[in-house]
Design brief:
Elements: H1 2-23, H2 39-45, H3 66-101, H4 115-133, H5 136-162, H6 164-167, H7 177-185, H8 190-208, H9 216-237, H10 241-259, H11 263-272, E1 274-278, E2 281-284, H12 285-314, H13 321-346, H14 353-367, H15 370-385, E3 393-395, E4 401-407, E5 411-415, E6 421-425, H16 428-431, E7 435-436, E8 443-452, H17 461-470, E9 475-476, E10 483-489, E11 494-503, H18 512-526
Antiparallel strand pairs: 1-2, 3-4, 3-7, 4-5, 5-6, 8-11, 9-11, 10-11
Helix pairs in contact: 5-8, 5-9, 8-9, 9-10, 12-13, 17-18
């Protein structure tokens, strides 16, 4: 009886094992304490084999479905990113522990130090290249780049032939010539523009195709095409050679840094170099660069706006020349003050920094900028008291003379009658004596001299000469009529002079005076009046 009971228990155990093996999918997992059963319990719980119901088989999944494939790729990428983040975190923790323990860990160098390392590096590079060459997504991107590079010049050439604005230069008398010149000049940018557009289109197509799915190489090519477009724009539209060189050597490297993803690192490095502090605001190297960039741009725009404003002010016929000059200088000072504040705001320099700047300027004036400050203040005085105005004819203390062409902040430009410009410091007009021929009245008196022989009937000269002098269009009858004067008895004849008034200044030594001299010569010649010439009488005494 004992052996039969043991055999029965063994048979029941085997049956239970087989039932659990195929039914474990549908039944809950037994807890460890539930696995300890007595033989009586096992016999009671075990269901008869005839009553077992088989569960239906689970449906199979189609792994080639694009949605499932994309989800699996995203999951693989997320797992790889998670593993990389965990690895970097572990390496950082290791480095911190080593640093705390005083252990210096040698950084792994990219340059191989042994033949084995060199072979390993070559093997990894070769494997990477081979993987790329056998990868459908990589080859698809290369093909897209090649096709875009071939198509872009073809499309640009067709547009240049079809569109009239790109086909021929603009005529000098065409409407909107300046804008059309820019459009015609932009014909050279068609190739890089279409290269960028085609690469963007191909990137979208590759992303939508399941077999490709990658666009990183096309994105890099598109970014480089944008950099090339920026370079072409600078070389075509920036005429100033200095500004063009500065733009090429600053904007192009900055664009390349942004393309390869080092812009944030560069920004952090520049912001990390602190030069000084204004209150709680640090002035970093990035702040200085922003001041230079925004200062160059804003002051260039300020110069353009100032030129337009000065032209508009000087075109106001209701203002005299002196008032136009005063208003123009006030406009210039207000404009560049606003530009200066805008530059500080764009560079994120607090306006409290103006106190520091003005303090530095005050110190500079005290140490060595006194002549500049004096000329600046003298320029303001000249503008407001109108002792010298644009257009006045002045004679300087050293004998130089000319018309006042412009009154600047530091000097006054005097244009001589022979076309030369004299840069006169403004203090000359506030400290020294000078002649201003046209300060109150533009009319000036001139005179020409001639000598006639002693046997001339000088009573008839006035009736002969003055009517002819009055025929000259520049000779005035006011404030005085032309006048013939007997000056003196000369050595060789009678010295005479004609005085006359004209409006304006002689353009050099020969203008009004030269015309009147011609008139005198013709009248004396036609009336047989002898012009005295030097004579020497020699007496021979015996």
């Amino acid at each position: 009886m004992g052996k039969l009971r043991i055999l029965a228990l063994i048979w029941v155990s085997l049956m239970m094992t087989s039932v659990c093996a195929w039914a474990q999918v549908s039944q809950p997992e037994l807890q460890p304490e539930q696995l300890i059963e007595t033989p009586a319990q096992v016999t009671a719980v075990a269901p008869p084999p005839a009553k077992v119901v088989l569960q239906p088989e689970a449906p199979a999944f189609d792994l080639d479905d694009p949605a499932i494939k994309a989800a699996l790729e995203d999951r693989a990428a997320a797992d790889a990113a998670l593993a990389e983040a965990v690895r970097e975190q572990a390496l950082a923790a290791q480095a911190r522990e080593a640093e705390a323990a005083g252990v210096v860990t040698e950084k792994k160098s990219f340059i191989p130090k042994s033949p084995d390392e060199f072979k390993t590096l070559l093997g990894s590079i070769g494997g990477k290249i081979l993987g790329w060459l056998t990868s459908v997504p990589f080859l698809a991107q290369v093909g897209a780049i090649v096709i875009a590079y071939i198509l872009s010049p073809i499309i640009a050439s067709l547009l240049r032939k079809k569109i009239a604005f790109f086909r021929e230069p603009v005529a000098d008398d065409a409407k909107l010539k300046r804008i059309r010149d820019y459009i015609y000049q932009a014909r050279t940018l068609l190739k890089p523009i279409f290269l960028v557009l085609l690469l963007a289109i191909f990137a979208a197509i590759l992303k939508a195709v399941p077999i490709a799915g990658q666009t990183w190489l096309v994105k890099i090519a598109q970014s480089l095409a944008v950099v090339f477009l920026l370079y072409k724009t600078i070389t075509e539209f920036v005429s100033n050679s200095l500004i063009r060189k500065l733009a090429i050597w600053t904007l192009i490297p900055l664009a390349l840094i942004m393309v390869f993803g080092f812009y944030d690192d560069l920004l952090n490095a520049l912001n990390g170099v602190e030069i000084m502090a204004i209150g709680d605001t640090p002035i970093t190297l990035m702040t200085v660069i922003l001041l230079l960039l925004f200062g160059s741009a804003f002051f260039k725009l300020g110069n353009v706006a100032n030129a337009k404003g000065q032209s508009a002010i000087r075109s106001q016929e209701g203002l005299d020349v002196a008032t136009q000059e005063v208003v123009g200088k006030l406009f210039q000072m207000a404009l560049f003050t606003i530009v200066f504040i805008m530059v500080l705001g764009a560079a994120k320099v607090p306006l409290s920094g103006l106190v520091v700047i003005f303090s530095a300027l005050s110190l500079g004036v005290g140490l060595g900028l006194q002549p500049i400050a004096a000329n600046f203040v003298s320029g303001l005085i000249i503008l407001f008291d109108r002792s010298v105005r644009v257009g006045d004819f002045v004679v300087l203390p050293d004998g130089q003379e000319g018309f006042v062409e412009a009154i600047n902040m530091r000097n006054t430009i005097v244009e001589t009658t022979d076309g030369k410009d004299i840069m006169v410091p403004n203090t000359k007009f506030t400290e020294d004596a000078y002649e201003n021929w046209t300060h109150k009245d533009p009319r000036q008196r001139y005179e020409v001299h001639f000598t006639v022989a002693y046997d001339t009937d000088i009573d008839t000269l006035e009736d002969l000469l003055l009517p002819e002098v009055l025929k000259h269009p520049s000779v005035l009858k006011e404030p005085e009529m032309p006048d013939l004067e007997f000056r003196k008895f000369g050595l060789n004849g009678i010295d005479m002079a004609i005085e006359f008034w004209c409006s304006g200044i002689d353009d050099g030594p020969n203008k009004f005076s030269s015309d009147i001299n011609f008139i005198v010569w013709r009248v004396l010649r036609d009336n047989k009046v002898e012009i005295a010439y030097p004579q020497l009488v020699v007496h021979n005494k015996k």
